[in-house]
Amino acid sequence: MPYTFNGGVHPPESKHATEHLPVRALAVGETLIVPLQQHLGVAANPVVKPGDKVARGTLLGEPAGFISAAVHSPVSGEVVAVEPRLLGLGRPGMCVVVKNDFEDRWAEGCNVESDTATLTAEDIRRKVRDAGIVGMGGATFPTHVKLSPPENKRIDTLVVNGAECEPFLTADHALMLADAGAIVLGAALAARAVAAERVLFAVEANKPDAFEVLDKVAAFCDNATALLLPTRYPQGAEKQLIKAVTGREVPSGGLPMDAGVLVQNVATCAAIHYGVAFNRPLTERIMTVTGPCAASPGNFHVRVGTPYADVLREVGFTSIPVRIIMGGPMMGIAQRSVDIPVTKGTSGLVLLDEVPDDSWHACIRCGKCVRACPVSIIPSELSVLLEAGRVDDAANADMLDCIECGCCTYVCPSKRPIVNWIKAGKAELAARRAKERKAAK
Amino acid sequence: MTAREEQFEPNRLSIATSPHIREAGDVKRIMWTVNATLVPIAALSLFLFGWYAGVVIAVSVISCLVFEAVWQRLSGKSITISDGSAVITGLLLAFVLPPNVPLYVVIVAAAVGILIAKQLFGGLGYNIWNPALVGRAFVQIAYPAAVTPSTWPIVSGDTWHRIFMDVRNAAPPNALAGSSYDAVTLATPLANDALAGFAPDAAGNVHLMYPSLNDLFLGAIPGCIGETSALLIILGGLYLICKGYINWKVPVVYLGTVFLFAFFFPSWKVPGAAAFGGLPEYVIGLDVPGRFFFPLYQVFSGGIVLGAVYMATDMVTTPITSRGQVIFALGCGVITASIRLLGHGFPEGCCYSILLMNTATPLIDRYTRPTKYGAVKK
């Protein structure tokens, strides 16, 4: 393996509790809360109203624009409310609340196998869009947009992301063991949609069993190779993964397609397969529920819209969690409530029994953050500038290149909240630029 | 226990932005680890130079702690002396003072180092110059006589292997006339005229007396309290390299640069050495490791091993990237070699080389920024 990426860290993997557990089915609950925004971009427009009968796969919200995604009912039953609910990002968002009738009827035309051999790139994009597929690694970018590169961008490589570099999470690992065929077939469809010449399956070395399986089934996809990468966070970050498997860098401020690469998460590929070949809208996913407070941690098939409480009841606690994280501990988001629903991007819940102390000290310029930074900027410098409120100077010191992976903050011996300052600095800069644009008009 | 919703009343769940885990280890652990590696060096100095060296070390460390605590109390900051950084300054300051230094000089040096060089600039993390070296530089100028080592170790080295050299001009320089030869050493053995003691042989000829390279490496030589034993300093440095606290390239490049300068330009001798017949030629002519003798003498004499391992690697006052650190070390080596081989005033160049390069650190940082991911290649 000739390539790698700069920097990175190797936190304790903490995957032992769930990494070899088969995926457990979770009894579907009585009430499902389906957010109309489970993706980056614009929220879907609701197309149902309270009292409407729905089946599994019935459209609840239609995409509102190109960078938006459809939302479908995860169960059959009745719409009881269309109202704002608290969501995982910490703010309320419009949701369709569906009461489950436990018949689990599919909507007409859904879950029907169809031939994919004759589908054109445009057909695949349309079906992906209709199935409401978004990036399931956590970024939740609408997949049909990624499959629609502009005419002048040539994509030659599809990288299928099975790195799962976040500690604790094993959902992708479990999927690779359980359903590698769907991943490979979905990858073949994605490759066809963008006319990529080769497909690279990237798996970290801490999942050798998943690598072996993918290595075997890769034969079902043309010009596909499975790669075993040394375990290092944030290898699963798009730009780092591209560097690690192709040696190319995405230009600063650019997109993967500018490097001729498309990256799709393994779960997204499987969703593409089921969406295109079986007309199954994306209404369920595999998620990991684990952490020091989890009594019976595991990987679960969960319907989108399931409140955390339903999953946590199944898992049980050894002690009450101090913090519940959606996603992994490096980039995941602390959750305010257990009434928040699982979305298409919820790769897991980590139940922590302790959290870092939030006191911090002056930077001693030890350079650990500089060595850990995967985009080779100088986090310590940004931290000093931003601590002093110098957002413009920070912008000149490559603040906007930060991918917010948190490596700098993870290693800092002065415990400085570097990435938090950077996020706040970016937000302030964005707000100010928006204001300036408004004033210029 | 079940996951009942009422267990999660608002504000029961802790909210903060990622990352939600942190690597073990903090500033305290780094500082106290460095201190731990300095302890063997302090212990050896007691063995070599006697109890007074211990008094100097204790006074230096306590002064640094007291000055820091008093400053922080008076300026209304929280007192952070338990972080170990003032202890490092105290130990290193004592290490670069001679074993017979008067205690008031130690206290003045500690005050200058902690109050002016460190706290006036904002405390740990904000200082531009290494506090211990600023303290030392100040007293070297203010009390030059008191800061010149003139004590042989009470436990002398392997006397049999000392190198005796004929002195062409039989008479020692006037300055030395009449003094007790045993007691005369100037600064640390820098392989120039400051190198050696003088000893008369049975015939009454005066000889320059040099410690062997062995003694030099092990530390049984005159010199400052903590800088004589290259062995213990290197062992401490290896440990810190293994812990990832210091960059191995810094001591290697620093000492390597001095070695190469001494190797290729031994004739850049200090004019004072001419009084003894041109020392470097003598050295080269000796029945010792040929051309390597003089450069090795340069590397293992004086304070540069201590400086290269413990001061040129100080996190706060040196560049932040590995490339910048290499440039820093190279600069230290060039300046040290220049002061030693070309200079007229000072026999030692380590302290000033590091302070000068500390000054250049922001500049080095500016020109050694790493190429960021995705930067447009030129």
Helix-strand topology string of chain A: EEEEEEEEHHEHHEHEHEHEEHEEEHHHHH
Name given to the CATH architecture of the domain at 121-277 in chain A: 3-Layer(aba) Sandwich
Strand content of chain B: under 5%
Shape of chain B: globular
Q: What top-tier CATH class of the domain at 121-277 in chain A fits best?
A: Alpha Beta
Average per-residue pLDDT of chain A, rounded, comes to 94
**Class per helix and strand makeup of chain B:** mainly alpha
Would you identify the CATH H-level superfamily of the domain at 121-277 in chain A?
A: NADH-ubiquinone oxidoreductase 51kDa subunit
Q: How many β-strand runs of chain B?
A: 3
- CATH fold title of the domain at 121-277 in chain A: Rossmann fold
Write the layout of secondary structure elements.
The complex is a heterodimer of chains A (441) and B (378).
Chain A: E1 23-25, E2 31-35, E3 45-46, E4 53-54, E5 59-62, E6 71-72, E7 77-86, E8 92-100, H1 121-130, H2 143-146, E9 157-162, H3 171-178, H4 180-194, E10 198-204, H5 208-217, E11 224-229, H6 238-246, E12 261-265, H7 266-277, E13 284-290, E14 298-303, H8 308-315, E15 323-326, E16 333-334, E17 348-352, H9 368-372, H10 379-387, H11 391-396, H12 407-411, H13 418-440
Parallel strand pairs in A: 1-14, 9-10, 9-12, 10-11, 13-17
Antiparallel strand pairs in A: 2-8, 3-5, 4-7, 5-6, 7-8, 13-14, 15-16, 15-17
Chain B: H1 27-49, H2 51-74, H3 85-95, H4 103-119, H5 131-142, E1 163-166, E2 197-200, E3 206-210, H6 213-218, H7 230-242, H8 249-264, H9 279-285, H10 293-300, H11 304-311, H12 322-342, H13 350-367
Antiparallel strand pairs in B: 1-3, 2-3
Helix pairs in contact in B: 1-2, 1-3, 1-7, 2-3, 2-4, 3-4, 3-5, 4-5, 5-13, 7-11, 8-10, 8-11, 8-12, 12-13
